[in-house]
Amino acid sequence: MKVTISDVAKKASVSKSTVSRIINGNHEQNTQETVNKVLKVIEELDYKPNALARSLKSTKTNVIGIILSKLQNQFWSSVLEGVEDTCRSYGYNLMICNSNEDGQLEEEHIRSLQMHQLDGLIINPTLKNKLLYKKLTDNKFPFILMNRKLYDQDVHMVTVDNIKGARVAIEHLIQTGRRKIAIFLYPPAEISPRLERLEGYKQALIKNGIKVNQSLIQIVGEEAGEVEEAVKRLLNSPDRPDAIFSTNNMMTLSILEGIKSQQIMVPQDLGLIGYDETVWAKHLNPPLTTVNQPSYEMGTIAAKKLIYLIEGKEDQMAEKVVSLEPNLIIRKSCGADKSY
Amino acid sequence: MKVTISDVAKKASVSKSTVSRIINGNHEQNTQETVNKVLKVIEELDYKPNALARSLKSTKTNVIGIILSKLQNQFWSSVLEGVEDTCRSYGYNLMICNSNEDGQLEEEHIRSLQMHQLDGLIINPTLKNKLLYKKLTDNKFPFILMNRKLYDQDVHMVTVDNIKGARVAIEHLIQTGRRKIAIFLYPPAEISPRLERLEGYKQALIKNGIKVNQSLIQIVGEEAGEVEEAVKRLLNSPDRPDAIFSTNNMMTLSILEGIKSQQIMVPQDLGLIGYDETVWAKHLNPPLTTVNQPSYEMGTIAAKKLIYLIEGKEDQMAEKVVSLEPNLIIRKSCGADKSY
DNA sequence: TTGAAAGCGCTAACAA
DNA sequence: TTGTTAGCGCTTTCAA
């Protein structure tokens, strides 16, 4: 049997309002006696306030939502941990959805989460239907976009400087003597991390007087095997590169696979830098040089931003668009460390 | 401005009950005319029913909760994906919490989730306070335990056969000529996957007439560096093993680290098998032989079980305790594949 | 075929 | 210091 505030009130011989005041900590005016009495009954009955009823009145649920895709990617599970930790420390619960990069699904999730009256939303947007975010803004619904930029709307975002991430990686390759550097990308479409990494790649080349060679820009599909095939093709072409820059951590594993099948040695014959630091990067053969993104911080910052927004503490909040800094973790795969 | 059922009713010149019937699909008795009229207004106003109010009446939220720890471990993110996919396909939302192996925190999460009137809970239990699960059972609160067994209570569980997982791994090592096989474990306490993996290890040895050597059973703490140290110590002791069985995927990376620092070759000098298949296992040097656990299935099964339980479809549900089968993925690190 | 009204469990304004 | 009451947005019984 569910125990409600009325049960507590009855058993303690007080009114519901008194109980309500006490469970909400507004008992400055109550006798210590009543407070103790009520607290005792709450304990005895193991009374748990119904958050639904409370929220219905207060129009505040203390629940936020997060819409992600590819949970299995370590980058995202790390972001999620950051969000979860922050939510807990601020007294919020978290609802999680997986959009799977499907715009339709993303829309359904947003709708469903709004029906549950969530206080706000953190989204890694699919960008398939930009009207979605526009509607949220129009409804004054608090939300934060993460990782991918929405260029033409003035919304809160937490991103990483992807131009810099790519530039630093490519410049490092150039400094250690590589000249024919290939970049591997999933189809950029309008996805800013992909576009920006390509941009950073080009900037670094141009700045160092190296001509951008279109055939070294490899845009590959996400189906199994496509990356391996592209690597093999490229390594056997006249444009064979002396280094590869991979822009995704899963993709890097496939690239390695492709390289190995060609009996090519990393880093002697080919330098390699991957995007995203992971637990396994340093255990690959050779240990992988990576561009590290502050994923956990991205989660904590997005969550804090959202909570400030919800609680009207815009003053405590950083700029509307936060851009985090990536950094290069140098190991052996890029060839800078000559101890092989 | 929030639009409520009253707004719709007013604008459509019908009563709230009529609107309610229509949004819930109970409009067999309504004129097609009224239905269309109301639907049109709902569209125009972009009306979204308030799930809080609805749930307050119906005492059903269509939200379930999951309490995990170590989200960053691929095993768990894969489980989570299974749960999420299943929830979506059955029309449930998912609240996620991280217990961080902290019994106190676990209790707070359960309490908080119950306050939110969740329909049920999936838990990877810390087992720090068994009364917690007892109370859930006493309250007839639907919940499923995952991965770790609760031995002395009759509850719903989805687990993997860890005795078998370990046995298969060890038997494979024995068959390929290893005799001095070490096992690395985090402190087992009452955690069934750890206890069972140790049990499977012993069973396999005994069955093959190999004496269990206590100094080859390495129980190591979870602090950074402890595993590496233990590996180094063991490899330089008189009891130096000819194979190592790692019982955790993170631990395996540390073991590899320790091995490398000793200039020992895997698998020539030392065979190695790790627990849990991961995206990176096949890319390690040498490619890692692993015991694969059906993690995604564990998630889907746990979620389905819970939903059946919530919806009173116990008949469609498998046994109260489901045990899944692990399988060995043979690569080079164990030494069976002699192509080195 | 539709509507009126009670009530889910809680909070808060107002009254005592 | 405490209680009474209205109402949050919805569903559902009962009546029309």
From TrEMBL, chains A, B:
**Annotated keywords:** DNA-binding, Transcription, Transcription regulation
Taxonomic placement: Bacteria, Bacillati, Bacillota, Bacilli, Bacillales
Whose protein is this, by species? Bacillus infantis NRRL B-14911
Stretches assigned to the HTH cro/C1-type domain: 2-45
InterPro entries recorded: Cro/C1-type_HTH (IPR001387), HTH_LacI (IPR000843), Lambda_DNA-bd_dom_sf (IPR010982), Peripla_BP/Lac1_sug-bd_dom (IPR001761), Peripla_BP_I (IPR028082)
Annotated HTH lacI-type domain ranges read: 3-58
**Name of the protein described by the UniProt record:** Transcriptional regulator
Domain of life according to the entry: Bacteria
Give the Pfam families listed for this entry: LacI (PF00356), Peripla_BP_1 (PF00532)
